[in-house]
Amino acid sequence: MKPKKLKILIAVTTIISSLVTSMTAFASEINYKYVKNNLSQITSKVWFKDSWFGLDTAMLYLINKIVQAVFWVAKFFFTIFASIYEKLVESPELFSNYVSDIISATASIFESLQGVMLPLIGASMAVYLAYVYFIKHGSFFKQLIRLFLVFICSILFFSKYSDGTYVVARFYTNTTSITTNLSSTVTKSLTGTKINIQSSDGALTEYAKSAIWTPYSYMNSDTAQTDNGFALSDNELQSLVDYNDGDDDFKVSNGDKETSIKEVAGSEDEPKNSMLKSNWGAMFSYAVVAVLESLLMGLILVFFAIMQFILNVSLLILLVFTPFALIFAMVPTFENILFNMTKKLGGTIVLSGLMTLLATI
Question: pLDDT of 302-322, one tens digit each?
Fold first, then answer.
């Protein structure tokens, strides 16, 4: 083969290999969906060499079944709380559609009320200004400017940008976008997983890693001075997920090569990875810690989910009454309604977004 053709072949092979490697790394990324899809296999793993009659080995595997039963409680809590969180915290994109629909409907109501009530509001403003000037001897221009500002703010509330979106809808979208980006950044810094779409996966990924994947890693690998803190690499731990106790032909892959489970675990006398042997005390400890962590973190996660759900419902209710509040706010001496309503709407939107961020932290 000519050197030129050989170079082209090597270059093409390198490009294909890098693409395959990047696709594999992306597909095997540890996040909520990965843990959820492989939850039944994520548990304590051990390997023992068959004894003469097999009784000793069967007893050892039975003990590991007890460890797995304890860890199953953690997975049960995780499944329950994660499901509740998913149900309560719908996709922000879906809820944004609800908000947009209600804003469009309330904007139509406001325009209708404005057409009917605007002459009456104008008359009430004129009467009030005359009362302030002739009877109270107050500052006519001060009151005029105040009423004018309240009127303008009320009108602008349901005004549209050039792209057709309402002012209040843009405020909601921008606030949600900021909190989602912050949640994604925090999730990446805590777990190494970046959430690129608006969803509840940020908090759930942190929950899955802390309550399920980290205990699983401790139960199946000795600690070491490595990048991930374990003797087994992340790829090997993911490969080990598919192993079932007693499968002597199973091979653990690190992405480059495969090693038999026998070599990874070692013998009873000279174990290469004590967590794949009879280190029962440590295994039970990690399983119990996983139960406590999945319970406590789950309760906190559901608390924030309930709070966010309540805030979202409150936001929708406030939006329904917004056009009536704006009309009343234009009436002299009722302008505080505008400020109170704006404060409640803004606070509800910000707090709703913060619930997602706090749940991630």
Answer: 888 888 888 888 888 888 888
